[in-house]
Amino acid sequence: EMLHLTSGLLEGYRWEQGQLPLEPINAHVICEEIVHELTPAAKEFGQRLGFTAVKRPLVAVGNSLLLKNVLFNVIFNALKHTPPETEVRIAANRHNERAFISVVDTGPGLSKRTIDYINQGSNDRLQVAASSSGSGLGLAVAKQLVRAMNGTLQLKASPKGGYCLVSLQISRQL
Fold first, then answer.
1. Burial class (CB in 10 A: 0-12, 13-18, 19+), 96
2. Buried b vs exposed e over 147-157: b needs ≥16 C-beta within 10 Å?
């Protein structure tokens, strides 16, 4: 997990330096790859990963390395904080000119304060949100990586669990 976080930070830096271009990426395939990669971890946690995709291919504008790091972080966090014998659900979908990837779990979620800080998105707020243990450092980095792809990352919590939604622009190129 720390390796993915560090890798995400490095890739974010490389993107800022113009070394990781935005291009058409198949978000559906990337989701499948991450689900496959994290299925053994889900089994170790006593959980299941479910994946559904409505539209195939789901070609968005982004960077495959950045999106893989974002999804790995979000899904691994969901697995880590969700009770055994449950399912973490991932869905990839298209609505109008946006690709949406959602991750839904039944864990306790983040505090309202942390979610508000991450959703509001300023760097100062992200630093405060990430300053205490287990309060969203990886999610704060994920939010910045999605923003680097001109996308959005939204978090919500409810008594039934957590919800993360990543949105990217649909590519006009195939």
1. exposed
2. ebbebbbebeb
Mean pLDDT of 31-49: 95
- Residue 166 and residue 100: Cα distance in Å, rounded? 6
Task: Say if strands 23-26 and 59-62 run parallel, antiparallel, or are unpaired.
Answer: antiparallel
> What confidence tens digit (pLDDT) does each residue in 137-160 have?
678 888 988 988 999 999 988 778
What local confidence, expressed as pLDDT, does residue 119 receive?
Answer: 73
| Residue that has been written with the tokens 């659900």 in this structure | 89
Predicted TM-score of the model (pTM): 0.82
Residue 136 CA to residue 148 CA, distance in Å, equals: 18
DSSP 61: E
Let me know: does 11 contact 20? Beta carbons within 8 Å.
Answer: yes
| CA 66 to chain centroid | 10
Distance CA(105)–CA(6), nearest Å, equals 24
* 3-class secondary-structure state, position 55: coil
What whole-number distance in Å separates Cα of residue 88 and Cα of residue 161?
10
